[in-house]
Specification:
The protein has 210 residues and is an alpha/beta fold. It has two domains: 156 residues, GTP cyclohydrolase II (Rossmann fold, 3-Layer(aba) Sandwich); 36 residues, no CATH class. Helix content is 32%, strand content 28%. It contains eight helices and seven strands; from the N terminus they run ββββααβααααβαβα. A hairpin with a 2-residue loop joins strand 2 and strand 3. The protein starts with a strand and ends in a 16-residue tail after the last helix. The protein binds zinc ion. The site of zinc ion (ZN) has 5 residues, from helix 1.
């Protein structure tokens, strides 16, 4: 399992606030640009400072196309806002995680099955994929490359915590993200909370649709 730093530069960004991050592109097992790390690190931080880390799965529909079917765009912006507000924060953007790891074409096919009544898990399974096909080993490898063995994890997803702990990365704190429920994402977000045990910042209620 080979993780290699391919390129790096500074990038000024602006979310809820502006900050400068170090952008580092990593290949993993020969796959180029597998993980893009956006690192915000103030120079005066303590040596043992534990970073706030988000492992974020790419979602072109949610982040670029403004899809209301998921919360990925909202979570990415919220996550970057928090990372920019803290002394040491790391966003790991997983470029091959589109559609929970099944790719964009299959995600579109899964959305079509959802139009016919399947939920997100059933749709993936009908296409012959597991409910979640994502592999987080590249994220673990990049954290090890960055010499990060303790994290405050920015996620609602208990699976991500399990993966890190199973790979000897200590999770000292879980920081949850909030969600904005709408009529299009309601079923998906409630499934995340009630079936996949995601812990949102505020418990989502069936009735809390704007
Ligand atoms: Zn999404």
């Amino acid at each position: 399992m080979k993780c290699e730093l391919m390129a790096e530069c500074k990038l000024p960004v602006k979310f809820s606030r502006a900050c400068e991050v170090d952008m580092k592109s990593f290949s993993y097992n020969g796959r180029p640009e597998e993980v893009i790390a956006l690192i915000h690190k103030k120079s005066e931080i303590a040596v043992n400072e534990v970073p706030l880390v988000r492992v974020h799965s790419a979602c072109i529909t949610g982040e670029i196309f403004g899809s209301q079917k998921c919360d990925c765009g909202y979570q990415f912006k919220q996550g970057m806002g928090k990372i920019c507000s803290t002394a040491y924060g790391i966003m790991l953007y997983m470029t091959s995680h589109e559609g929970r790891g099944i790719g964009l074409n299959n995600k579109i096919r899964a959305y079509q099955l959802q139009e016919q009544g399947a939920n997100t898990i059933e749709a993936n399974e009908k296409l012959g994929f597991p409910a979640d096909a994502r592999d987080f080993s590249a994220a673990v490898a990049v954290l090890k490359f960055l010499k990060v063995d303790r994290v405050k994890i920015l996620t609602n997803n208990p699976e991500k915590i399990k993966v890190l702990r199973n790979n000897n990365i200590e999770v000292v704190e879980q920081v949850s993200l909030s969600a904005e429920l709408n009529q299009f994402n309601k079923q998906y977000l409630l499934l995340k909370q009630n079936v996949l045990a995601h812990r949102f910042q505020h418990f989502l209620q069936e009735t809390s649709v704007f």
